């Protein structure tokens, strides 16, 4: 009986983990959710012209090496 309960608990934990790892955070492809308020774009890929507010505002950022283009898709800087 204990083995059956252990299996059920393990199954529930596995399903919860799977659900958490596949949750839609609302970010486009090749992007992730972060609390940094300034996202790199084709217009300012190095954030040299962007004034960021001090508050941490959760938003989407492109993955490393990518920036947002005008259509809000993550692309390599060379594609801007």
Automatic annotation (TrEMBL):
<dbReference type="Pfam" id="PF01826">
    <property type="entry name" value="TIL"/>
</dbReference>
<keyword id="KW-0646">Protease inhibitor</keyword>
<feature type="signal peptide">
    <location>
        <begin position="1"/>
        <end position="23"/>
    </location>
</feature>
<dbReference type="GO" id="GO:0030414">
    <property type="term" value="F:peptidase inhibitor activity"/>
</dbReference>
<dbReference type="InterPro" id="IPR036084">
    <property type="entry name" value="Ser_inhib-like_sf"/>
</dbReference>
<protein>
    <submittedName>
        <fullName>Fungal protease inhibitor F-like</fullName>
    </submittedName>
</protein>
<keyword id="KW-0732">Signal</keyword>
<feature type="domain" description="TIL">
    <location>
        <begin position="27"/>
        <end position="80"/>
    </location>
</feature>
<dbReference type="InterPro" id="IPR002919">
    <property type="entry name" value="TIL_dom"/>
</dbReference>
């Amino acid at each position: 009986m204990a083995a059956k309960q252990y299996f059920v608990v393990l199954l529930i934990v596995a399903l919860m983990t799977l659900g958490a790892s596949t949750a839609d955070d609302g970010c486009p492809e090749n992007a992730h959710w972060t609390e940094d308020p300034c996202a790199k774009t084709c217009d300012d890929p190095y954030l040299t012209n962007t004034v960021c507010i001090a508050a941490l505002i959760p938003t989407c950022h492109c993955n490393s090496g990518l920036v947002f283009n005008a259509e809000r898709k993550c692309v390599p800087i060379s594609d801007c």
